[in-house]
Amino acid sequence: MYIFIYLPWFYYNECTITPGLPIIHIIHCSLDDLIPFCEYFIIPYISWFFYILFACLFILYKGSDSEFFKLAMSLVIGMSLSMAICMIYPSGLNLRPDVFPRHNIFSALVAIIYSSDTPTNVFPSVHVFNSLAIHISISKLKVLENYKWVKNCSLVLCILICLSTVFIKQHSLIDVTGACVMMFVLYVGIYVLDYNKIFSRAKRNKEILE
Q1: pLDDT number for residue 56
Q2: Three-state SS across the chain?
Protein backbone atom coordinates (compact mmCIF):
# COMPACT_ATOMS: atom_id res chain seq x y z
CA MET A 1 0.00 0.00 0.00
CA TYR A 2 2.94 2.32 0.60
CA ILE A 3 3.52 2.53 -3.16
CA PHE A 4 0.44 4.77 -3.36
CA ILE A 5 2.23 7.21 -1.06
CA TYR A 6 5.72 6.86 -2.48
CA LEU A 7 4.91 7.26 -6.19
CA PRO A 8 3.03 10.59 -5.84
CA TRP A 9 5.77 11.80 -3.49
CA PHE A 10 8.46 10.78 -5.97
CA TYR A 11 6.54 12.41 -8.85
CA TYR A 12 6.14 15.62 -6.83
CA ASN A 13 9.87 15.77 -6.15
CA GLU A 14 10.67 15.08 -9.81
CA CYS A 15 8.35 17.89 -10.92
CA THR A 16 9.45 20.48 -8.38
CA ILE A 17 13.16 19.71 -8.05
CA THR A 18 14.31 19.92 -11.63
CA PRO A 19 17.72 20.37 -13.33
CA GLY A 20 18.92 23.97 -13.38
CA LEU A 21 17.40 25.09 -10.10
CA PRO A 22 19.93 27.14 -8.09
CA ILE A 23 19.06 25.25 -4.89
CA ILE A 24 20.29 21.93 -6.27
CA HIS A 25 23.51 20.57 -4.78
CA ILE A 26 25.58 18.75 -7.38
CA ILE A 27 26.76 15.41 -5.98
CA HIS A 28 30.24 14.51 -7.19
CA CYS A 29 33.53 13.06 -6.02
CA SER A 30 36.85 12.44 -7.76
CA LEU A 31 36.29 8.67 -7.82
CA ASP A 32 33.21 9.17 -10.00
CA ASP A 33 35.47 10.38 -12.81
CA LEU A 34 37.50 7.17 -12.64
CA ILE A 35 34.46 4.97 -13.22
CA PRO A 36 33.86 4.44 -16.96
CA PHE A 37 30.41 4.54 -18.47
CA CYS A 38 29.30 1.00 -19.26
CA GLU A 39 25.89 0.60 -20.87
CA TYR A 40 25.81 -3.16 -20.23
CA PHE A 41 25.05 -2.46 -16.57
CA ILE A 42 21.58 -1.34 -17.66
CA ILE A 43 20.57 -5.01 -17.39
CA PRO A 44 21.08 -5.31 -13.60
CA TYR A 45 19.78 -1.76 -13.22
CA ILE A 46 16.46 -2.67 -14.84
CA SER A 47 16.36 -6.04 -13.08
CA TRP A 48 15.99 -4.06 -9.83
CA PHE A 49 12.28 -3.59 -10.53
CA PHE A 50 11.70 -7.35 -10.84
CA TYR A 51 14.02 -8.09 -7.91
CA ILE A 52 12.04 -5.84 -5.58
CA LEU A 53 8.62 -7.01 -6.76
CA PHE A 54 9.38 -10.73 -6.71
CA ALA A 55 11.20 -10.60 -3.36
CA CYS A 56 8.41 -8.65 -1.65
CA LEU A 57 5.77 -11.09 -2.90
CA PHE A 58 7.90 -14.11 -1.97
CA ILE A 59 8.56 -12.86 1.56
CA LEU A 60 4.90 -11.88 1.96
CA TYR A 61 3.68 -15.40 1.16
CA LYS A 62 6.62 -17.55 2.30
CA GLY A 63 8.11 -15.57 5.14
CA SER A 64 6.76 -15.16 8.66
CA ASP A 65 4.76 -12.12 9.71
CA SER A 66 7.81 -10.87 11.62
CA GLU A 67 10.11 -11.28 8.61
CA PHE A 68 7.77 -9.43 6.30
CA PHE A 69 7.13 -6.71 8.88
CA LYS A 70 10.86 -6.04 9.22
CA LEU A 71 11.27 -5.84 5.44
CA ALA A 72 8.27 -3.54 5.15
CA MET A 73 9.60 -1.29 7.90
CA SER A 74 13.01 -1.12 6.19
CA LEU A 75 11.51 -0.15 2.84
CA VAL A 76 8.90 2.28 4.12
CA ILE A 77 11.22 4.12 6.52
CA GLY A 78 14.16 4.13 4.10
CA MET A 79 12.21 5.34 1.08
CA SER A 80 10.43 7.99 3.17
CA LEU A 81 13.75 9.23 4.55
CA SER A 82 15.18 9.33 1.02
CA MET A 83 12.31 11.46 -0.27
CA ALA A 84 12.48 13.75 2.78
CA ILE A 85 16.24 14.20 2.36
CA CYS A 86 15.73 15.07 -1.31
CA MET A 87 13.28 17.81 -0.29
CA ILE A 88 15.49 19.19 2.47
CA TYR A 89 18.74 18.79 0.53
CA PRO A 90 17.89 18.95 -3.20
CA SER A 91 20.54 17.03 -5.11
CA GLY A 92 21.52 16.43 -8.71
CA LEU A 93 24.16 14.98 -11.00
CA ASN A 94 26.22 16.10 -13.97
CA LEU A 95 27.79 12.70 -14.65
CA ARG A 96 25.73 11.58 -17.63
CA PRO A 97 27.71 11.42 -20.90
CA ASP A 98 26.71 13.85 -23.64
CA VAL A 99 27.39 11.17 -26.24
CA PHE A 100 27.37 7.43 -25.72
CA PRO A 101 30.72 5.78 -26.57
CA ARG A 102 28.83 2.92 -28.24
CA HIS A 103 25.42 2.69 -29.86
CA ASN A 104 23.59 -0.57 -29.25
CA ILE A 105 20.45 -1.92 -27.62
CA PHE A 106 21.93 -1.39 -24.17
CA SER A 107 22.76 2.27 -24.74
CA ALA A 108 19.26 2.70 -26.18
CA LEU A 109 17.84 1.36 -22.92
CA VAL A 110 20.03 3.77 -20.97
CA ALA A 111 18.68 6.62 -23.11
CA ILE A 112 15.13 5.58 -22.21
CA ILE A 113 16.02 5.62 -18.51
CA TYR A 114 17.64 9.05 -18.90
CA SER A 115 14.56 10.45 -20.63
CA SER A 116 12.16 9.15 -17.98
CA ASP A 117 14.26 9.91 -14.88
CA THR A 118 15.79 13.33 -14.35
CA PRO A 119 19.31 13.56 -12.85
CA THR A 120 17.89 15.02 -9.65
CA ASN A 121 16.79 13.67 -6.25
CA VAL A 122 19.71 11.30 -6.23
CA PHE A 123 21.00 11.34 -2.64
CA PRO A 124 20.72 8.79 -1.15
CA SER A 125 20.18 6.18 -3.84
CA VAL A 126 16.83 4.42 -3.48
CA HIS A 127 18.04 1.80 -5.98
CA VAL A 128 20.91 0.88 -3.69
CA PHE A 129 18.99 1.15 -0.43
CA ASN A 130 16.11 -1.07 -1.57
CA SER A 131 18.50 -3.66 -2.97
CA LEU A 132 20.32 -3.85 0.35
CA ALA A 133 17.06 -4.05 2.31
CA ILE A 134 15.76 -6.85 0.08
CA HIS A 135 18.96 -8.88 0.25
CA ILE A 136 19.24 -8.56 4.03
CA SER A 137 15.67 -9.79 4.36
CA ILE A 138 16.27 -12.71 1.98
CA SER A 139 19.47 -13.68 3.79
CA LYS A 140 17.52 -13.96 7.06
CA LEU A 141 14.54 -15.95 5.77
CA LYS A 142 14.12 -19.20 7.70
CA VAL A 143 12.39 -20.81 4.73
CA LEU A 144 15.64 -20.41 2.76
CA GLU A 145 17.95 -21.84 5.42
CA ASN A 146 18.81 -24.82 3.20
CA TYR A 147 18.91 -22.83 -0.03
CA LYS A 148 22.21 -20.99 0.18
CA TRP A 149 22.38 -20.75 -3.60
CA VAL A 150 19.29 -18.53 -3.53
CA LYS A 151 20.90 -16.24 -0.97
CA ASN A 152 24.14 -16.20 -2.98
CA CYS A 153 22.26 -15.31 -6.17
CA SER A 154 20.51 -12.51 -4.28
CA LEU A 155 23.87 -11.21 -3.04
CA VAL A 156 25.36 -11.21 -6.54
CA LEU A 157 22.33 -9.44 -8.00
CA CYS A 158 22.34 -6.91 -5.15
CA ILE A 159 26.01 -6.10 -5.78
CA LEU A 160 25.46 -5.83 -9.54
CA ILE A 161 22.51 -3.47 -9.05
CA CYS A 162 24.55 -1.26 -6.73
CA LEU A 163 27.41 -1.20 -9.26
CA SER A 164 25.02 -0.48 -12.11
CA THR A 165 23.95 2.83 -10.57
CA VAL A 166 27.46 4.25 -10.93
CA PHE A 167 28.43 2.54 -14.20
CA ILE A 168 25.46 3.95 -16.12
CA LYS A 169 26.00 7.29 -14.34
CA GLN A 170 22.66 7.37 -12.57
CA HIS A 171 24.34 7.96 -9.22
CA SER A 172 27.54 9.12 -7.63
CA LEU A 173 29.51 6.97 -5.21
CA ILE A 174 28.38 9.48 -2.59
CA ASP A 175 24.75 8.48 -3.24
CA VAL A 176 25.71 4.82 -2.87
CA THR A 177 27.56 5.50 0.37
CA GLY A 178 24.63 7.48 1.74
CA ALA A 179 22.28 4.58 1.04
CA CYS A 180 24.65 2.13 2.72
CA VAL A 181 24.94 4.29 5.82
CA MET A 182 21.16 4.69 6.03
CA MET A 183 20.68 0.94 5.63
CA PHE A 184 23.22 0.27 8.39
CA VAL A 185 21.39 2.55 10.81
CA LEU A 186 18.02 1.01 10.00
CA TYR A 187 19.48 -2.50 10.17
CA VAL A 188 20.58 -1.85 13.76
CA GLY A 189 17.23 -0.31 14.63
CA ILE A 190 15.10 -3.02 13.00
CA TYR A 191 17.13 -6.25 13.15
CA VAL A 192 19.58 -5.85 16.03
CA LEU A 193 17.94 -3.94 18.86
CA ASP A 194 15.60 -5.92 21.12
CA TYR A 195 12.94 -3.39 22.06
CA ASN A 196 11.21 -5.76 24.49
CA LYS A 197 14.39 -5.93 26.57
CA ILE A 198 14.95 -2.18 26.25
CA PHE A 199 11.42 -1.32 27.38
CA SER A 200 11.37 -3.92 30.16
CA ARG A 201 14.74 -2.64 31.44
CA ALA A 202 13.47 0.93 31.34
CA LYS A 203 10.34 -0.16 33.20
CA ARG A 204 12.42 -1.90 35.90
CA ASN A 205 14.66 1.16 36.27
CA LYS A 206 11.58 3.34 36.65
CA GLU A 207 10.17 1.05 39.32
CA ILE A 208 13.48 1.07 41.20
CA LEU A 209 13.61 4.87 41.12
CA GLU A 210 10.06 5.07 42.42
Answers
A1: 95
A2: CCHHHHHHHHHHHHHHCCCCCCCCEECCCHHHHHCCCCHHHHHHHHHHHHHHHHHHHHHHHHCCHHHHHHHHHHHHHHHHHHHHHHHHCCEECCCCCCCCCCCCHHHHHHHHHHHHCCCECCCCCHHHHHHHHHHHHHHCCHHHCCCHHHHHHHHHHHHHHHHHHHHCCCCCHHHHHHHHHHHHHHHHHHHHCCHHHHHHHHHHHHHHHC
